[in-house]
Each structure stands twice: as C-alpha cells, then as structure tokens.
Amino acid sequence: MLLTAFPMVASLYLAFTDYDLFHDPSWIGLQNFRDLFADSRFWTSARVTAIYVLVGTPIKLAAALAVAMLLNMKHRGQGAYRSIFYAPSLIGASVSIAIVWKAMFIDDGIVDRIAQVFGAPAGGWVGDPSKTMPMFILLATWTFGAPMVIFLAGLKQVPAELYEAAAVDGAGPARKFWRITIPMLSPVLFFNLLLETIGAFQVFGSAFIISGGTGGPADSTLFYTLYLYIKGFAQFDMGYASAMAWVLVIVVGVITTILFKTSNAWVHYSGDNR
Amino acid sequence: MRITRKAAGAVAASATIVLALTACGQGGGTTAEPGSGEELSTDEDITISLAWWGEPDRASMYEEAVDLFESEHPNITVQTQFQDWDAYWTARATEAAGGSLPDVIQMDLSYLRQYGATGQLLDLEGQVGVNLDVEGVDDALLESGAIDGAQYGVPTSTNTLATFYNADLLTKVGVEPLAEGYTWEDYGAWIQEVSKAGADMDPQLYGGADFTGTFWFFLEWLIQQGVEPFAEDGTLNFDEAQLTEWLSMGQELRDSGAIYPIKQTKQLDPLGGFHVNESASEVTWDNFLAGYVAESGEDIQMLPIPSGENGPQQFWKPSMLLSASASTSQPAASAALIDFLINEPEVGKIFGTSKGVPAVQAQRDAMDVEPGSVDEQVVQYEEDVADVVTEAAPVPVEGFGEIEAEFKRLGEELQYGNVTVEEMASQWFTFANDTVVTE
S-S: A56 plus which of A137, B51, B80, B349, CB 3.0-4.6 Å? Predict the structure, then answer.
C-alpha cells in the first residue's frame, strides 16, 4: 500500500513542477496542464489511443466471443483447441512477438505478399502511417485469449433448456443468439468490455518495440503511454509526464464510471426481476 | 488502471526518493586541483562499473579490452553493461536522478553539458598525472571534454563527416561520382540525376536520403557560412529564416521523389537504404564505414562533405568520450580504466576505427592497418580531409540531445508531407526555446 501510495503522491506533486531529472523540481502550478492542452502531439496521442480503444476493443471482443462460441460446441479434443487459441495471448504481449509482427508487415514480408495476391499494391505496412493502426488492431485482436476464456465460462452457465425451449418455439440460430446468448452473457460481456477498454488505454510494449520508442512513422502510433514515456524519459520532462499520467487516470476513471452507469440499462444479472 | 498508476508512480518514485540524495550529492562546479587524486591501491579488492552504447559488435570489443585491463589490475573487477543509443540515455538519466551513475560511462558531446553542468560527472583534473595520463591527447581535443575548466570527459577518438557513395552502383547506372569541391546544391542535383538513372532498376535505386533532416548537417552548413551555432551563454545563434532556408534546399528532392523514401527507411531501421544498396550515397560520420561495408558488400568510397560559400570547411567531432561519475566511490580505479582505454595500444588494436580514429598516437600506430582494409580507408580519409578541417566543433548547449532528436522527428514528418518547411521551422524553434537550458 505504501509502495503505491507514496509514488502516487509524489507524482501528483511533480505534475505541478518543472522537473528534468537533473535540476531540482520547481513549482509551476498548472503550467504543465496548460502546456498539455496546447500541445498538438498530446492531442495526436489522445486521438491515436481513442481510435485504438474505440475500434480495437469491439473487434477483439467480437473475435473472442466468436471463437468462444465455436469452442463451446461439443466435439472431441476441446481442451486442446482451447489451449491452442489461448496461446497467442500468453505470448502476444511479449517483446519477441512485436518483433516478429514487425517482420511480417514490412516490405516483402508475408502480409505484403499475401495482400499482393489479392491485388493490393506492393509495400509494407510498417512505414506507412495510414496502415500502422490496422496493424496494431490486428495484433490486439490476435491476443483474444483472456476474454475468450471468460466468455467460454459464461457460455457454460447458460442453461441448455433455454435453447431447447426456443428451438421448440421455432427460433433460428440468429434469434437464439440475440435473445438468449447475449442477454445471458451480458454480465460477462460487461466485465470483458471494462477490462479490455482499460487495457487498451495502457498499450505500450508493442508500440514501443514496433516504432522503436518513437511513436513513428509520423506519430501514427504515438499511443498516450508512449508519449508519456517519451516526455519523461527521452525529453526529461518529468513534471509534464506526471501531469499526463494524472490526466490519463482521470479519463480512465470517468470512462469506467460511465460504463458502470450505462450497464444498468443492458446488463442482466440472473435472478434480476427486470 | 493499476498499471497506469504504477507507471506514474515508478516514474515519481525513482525521482523523488533520491531528490534528497542528489540535493546533497551535487557538488557541481567545484574544480579539482590538478593531481590531487589518490594513487590507485593494488591490494584492495575493487569493483567498478562501466557502461557504453552500441551494438553487440562493440560490446565484444569492450569485453576484450576490459579483460585485458583486469589481467593487468588483478584486484579490480569491472562490471559492464551496454544499450543502444536511445535506451542508453534513458537509463543514464534515470540513474543520474538517483545519483547512481555507473563509475565509468561512455559520453557524447551532445550530453556532456547536461551531465557535466549539473554536477553528475567527476572532474578528472585531479586524476591527471596520478592515475590518468592525457599527454597523448591533442590539447584542443582534450579541451572539448572540459566545461568551465573542469575536465568532465576525455575523448577517445575523433570523427568527421563524410559523404559515402557506392561506386559499384554508380558504375551500374553510369553516373560519375561527385567531384571534390561540390556544394550542397550540387549534391542535391546529383541525387536527382542518380535517382533518374536508377528509376528502372529493380529494386529502384535512389541517389541519397534527405540530408536536410539531420541536425548536424544543418550545423555544418551554418559553420560554413561563418555562423557559430551556439552562443557562449548557451543560446541559439541562428534564427527561423536560416532554418527555413536550409530545409527548403531539400524541397525539390522531396517533391520529385528523388530521395530514398522515408517509408522504406523506417522499415529498415536501424539500417538504411544505403546499407541495402538501394541508395547510392549517404552523408554521415566517417566511423560508419565498417558498418556499411559489412552490410552492403560493395565498393564504398568516401568524399568530404559538400562545401558552403567559403569552400569546404569541416570540423573534428570529439567522439566517444569517457567520463567518471561524480558519485563514484572509486575515483582512482575509474581514472585508471579511462587511462587504459585511451592509451593502451592493445585497446587501439581491438577497436580499430569503429569508434573513430583513436585520439592517441600509440593506439593509432598499434592498429592493424592492412592495405585495403576499412581501417586504412578511414585513417586515409581523415588524413586527406585534415586540411579542410578548419573549424572547431560547436560546443553543444545543454539540452542538445533533445533538440537534436526533435529535429530528426520533425524532419521525418516533413518527408511524410505532414508539415511544411515553415511549420517545421516554427515548431522546432518553439520546442528548442522551451528545452535549451540557458545560463
């Protein structure tokens, strides 16, 4: 507790100072925050992160749910399939995968070649600012294991009688999905949404490796945390970085609160009378 | 969210805990008396640490040199570590804030002032003549490692800029190499010519990269016009109009697509188009030759850099300084290690010209300079350009490393077409005015 609390208080203090690691911090009040909101790279990093959260999270959750439903069907060797689909999540956040990922997407890499077969123009994705974000979202989607396992557990809880009753009433698969699976799964869905949203805000390792710590090319992968790191440890503007950290804490806090508030409208807990 | 807090916390923790420590540890500004250091003990067990930036290649050379040092001083153990350039400065900055810099660190001119002026480095003056012999280092060169009379670093070698070209590729496309005495404009026109001739090759051949995006070349260009880039008081001696003029020189190249595409450079990083034989020329420091030859495998030749209004003018850049930490508990052993690395002939043999041409004659003599070898080419180049090296290297301002990095970043944005020349100039000045620490 002390180990968390003390640094937090210290960073709160530093957020109001000009501190470059070499000279003593000097109190500058709200200057860091004023600079922050006038800094175009700050807004770039906020935009990059927002796109990643808003586009990447739903895609990842959809992929996780789709695979979870496939794995929930009865067939032999289920356990093995589950492990196989979970594997990317274990290694996906690692440095080596980011390196392999980069190698796959450069000029004449495997993705470039496959894309050319389908008639796309030649050229890797890594150096092209318009294609780096799709690349990151793919990487995130690929590591769907954790939400998938949680979905799978949720699916197991859905009583089979509901589906049987629906089948008797003549409901098709789509209808069953929207009327039974989704409502019954909503608490799990909410949990995953919360976790993945917060996680997406914090993406750092893969962005750091793929862009070599610069957020490049042309700031197209300048994730918020990466910019925070650059400010603090490359430009030695620790006060500014602390201010950024606190802005992030507040933003994530607000978004979490909003998610909780809206959850009343769409999350159904079993035993609930609504 | 927990991680966010932890990250923010870790930043703050390392910083704050040690604030108190640095506050008392900062004895910056006091100059040591010459020869006031104590003699190195020969029986007491001593452990010191050494850090440098570089590739695994350099690491094996350092390890070899350190082994030699340890066998000569059996009571001293040297713990080593290295990182690449960017990570190196991140790690050192964090350590500096914590007052725990390694005993001996490889230092660059870009950061010397930042560390020296803030009391992080040991004034080696006290060790001179006791454990550190600097007799062999040229006075002007040695002076470049001093700030306000305090010797914060000793340069181990010298670099100067060179224009590299790939002679094999030029023969293939039938373009003559540049003749000495060419200007920056000539270089631009030549890049156009090569790119035109190489347009049909597979892969397409380009004449060169966008040279206007490199801070050091801009400084070189200023110096060639008689402008000293940094004033005595640590302020910038040039204005937005000059930067705009410099950047505009590359506009035609960028517009016509004659330069090696930034998109491809980013993918090859840390290599470049010149390494992979897709670009015919590159301006950079002369110690890069070994790397180019190893990657490209073709005939790489060197020329002095383009001339300015007053003809060809270059400077020696003191390279790979060695500094000791102000917080070291072993100043004598640290000085002895620095002494060994700059003076020992065997060490010169190990490193060759990979760090530049050694500063001390004994090391230069010890190098196995075989005819036709990379080392010979670099040594020969430095001898050839010696008469156009007429200027003193600019003394970097505090914050130099950061404004240099920002220059590079904006230069890339310029090549991607995300900013105009004027926007880059104004954004860079805003950043620089904020960053440069003036006295």
Answer: A137
**What pLDDT does residue B251 have?**
94
Residues of chain A with C-beta less than 8 angstroms from the C-beta of B270: 212
Ranking A138-142, B117-121, B241-245 by mean pLDDT, the lowest is: A138-142
Q: For residues A55 and A274, is the Cβ–Cβ distance under 8 A? A: no
Decide: helix, strand or coil at residue A203: coil
Q: Any chain B CB within 8 A of the CB of A37?
A: no
With a cut of 60, say whether residue B10 has pLDDT above it: no
Among A28, A43, A231, A235, the strongest candidate for a mutation testing the B interface, having the largest count of B CBs within 10 A, is: A235
Question: Confidence band (pLDDT; 50, 70, 90) for B11?
Answer: very low
Sheet holding B76-83, edge to edge: B76-83, B46-53, B104-107, B317-324, B154-159, B357-358
Structural domains of chain B in order of their starting residue, each with its CATH number: 41-159+317-384 (3.40.190.10), 161-316+393-435 (3.40.190.10)
- In this structure, is the dihedral angle defined by the CA atoms of residues A99, A101, A105 and A108, taken in order, positive or negative? positive
Average pLDDT, chain A: 82
Query: Distance (Å, rounded) from C-alpha B268 to C-alpha B78?
Result: 35
- Across the interface, do A202 and B120 touch by the CB < 8 Å criterion? no
Name the more confident of B244 and B311.
B244
For chain A, how many structural domains are there in total?
Answer: 1
Instruction: Determine the distance in angstroms separating the CA of A193 from the nearest CA of chain B, rounded to an integer.
Output: 14
**Which range in A103-107, A168-172, B75-79 is most confidently predicted, on average pLDDT?**
B75-79
Q: How many CB pairs under 8 A join A and B?
A: 134
Strand pairing partners for A27?
A17
Residue A1 lies in a domain: no
| Per-window interface: A 188-217 vs B, CB < 8 A | 198, 201-202, 212-214, 216-217
Whether this model's ipTM surpasses 0.85 comes out as no
pTM strictly above 0.90: no
B263 touches chain A (CB under 8 A): yes
